[in-house]
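Sequence only, no structure available. Ideas?
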Amino acid sequence: MKSVGVARVKNELDIIEPFVRHHSEHFDKLIILDDGSTDGTYQALQQLQPACGNLIVLREPVIGYEQRRYMTLLSRMAVDKFGADWVVPLDADEFVEPVDGLSLADVLACLQPAIYELQWSNFIWRPELEHGDERNPVLRQRFRLPPHSQNSKLLIHSQFVNETLEISTGNHLLMDSGSPLPKQPLERATLCHYPIRSVAQYAGKIAVGYLQYLATPDWDRQQGFHYIEPFQELAKFGLEGVAKRIVRDSLFYSIAESDRAKDDPVAIEAPLNYLGGALTLTPCGDFVLQNVLRYVEMMAAEFVDKVERSRDFDRVSTENVLLRKRLAELEFEFLNSREKEIL
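Reply:
I predicted one. C-alpha cells follow.
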C-alpha cells in the first residue's frame, strides 16, 4: 500500500523544511509543485532533495489562483505515475498527525477505499512568539484550537482519482461535474494548521494571496474571502494594520464573519507530534516587499505578453482576411478569363 502527499506551494520559506521533513516520515512519496516562489522556497526544496529521497520537486509559476486545476493534476500524477493507493492533498502550512503516535501507514491500513475528511485544527499566533529563539514554527506554536466544522481536507483512495473528478479549491471537496462527492470522517488522524506565523509572514501571505485571487478570472470572492479585509487593512495602514488584527485573525482564520460570533475559541497546549527532526537550512530575512514586487512584475510581464499576442492575432487575422479577399478576386478573374475563352 502506497501513500503520496501532494502540495502546491508559494513563498513558504519559513515552514517548508519542517513540512518536507515531517511528511517524508509519513508518505512514500511527496510531490511538491512550486508556484513561482520568490523568497527561496524553491531553492530550499532543491536542497532538501538529497536528504529526503522520496521528495519530488516541480515548478510552474502561474499568475492567478489555479490551485484547483493543479492539485487535481498532481493527484492524478500520484496515482498514474507513482502508483499511489492513497493521495493526500496538502498546503505547506498543514501537517498530518495520526493519533496515539501511529504512523499514517498504520491509519491507512485499516481503511476501506473511500473519500475521507481530515479535521483541521488551527495553531494560534501570540505576540510573545514574534521574536522567540525557536526557528521551527511547528515547535514554536504549541497552542491549538479545536477543529471547526467549516474546515476539513481530503484523504482520497486512488479509485476516486480519475479523469472526470477534480479537487475543489482549498482541497476541501472532491467534485464530480460540479457536485461534491460524499466524504467519511476520519477519526484516527487530523491536520495541524499553521496559517499565521509572524506579522511579516502574514502580511506577505495576504498581499500575494489576494492579488492571486484578484488575477483569477470569474473570482466569486467566496473562495479566499479571508484575504479581502486584511488586504485592505494592509494597503491602508501597512504592517501596523496587520499587527492590530493578527491575534483575532489567528483565532478565526478562514471562518466567515457571520460564524465568528457563534464561537468562543479556547486554545489548549497540545503541540504537534513532529517527526521531522532538526532543521538544517538557515533562511534569513523577511521578503514581504520583495515577494509582492516580484509578483507584480510577473503580472506586468504576462499582461504585456497577452497584449503582444493579441496584436499578433489581430495582425494575422487581418492578413487572413486580406488573403481570402485576394483569393476571391483571383478566382473571379480566373472565371472571367475562362468565360472569355469559351466565347
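The first strand starts at residue 3 and ends at 9.
Hope that gets you unstuck.
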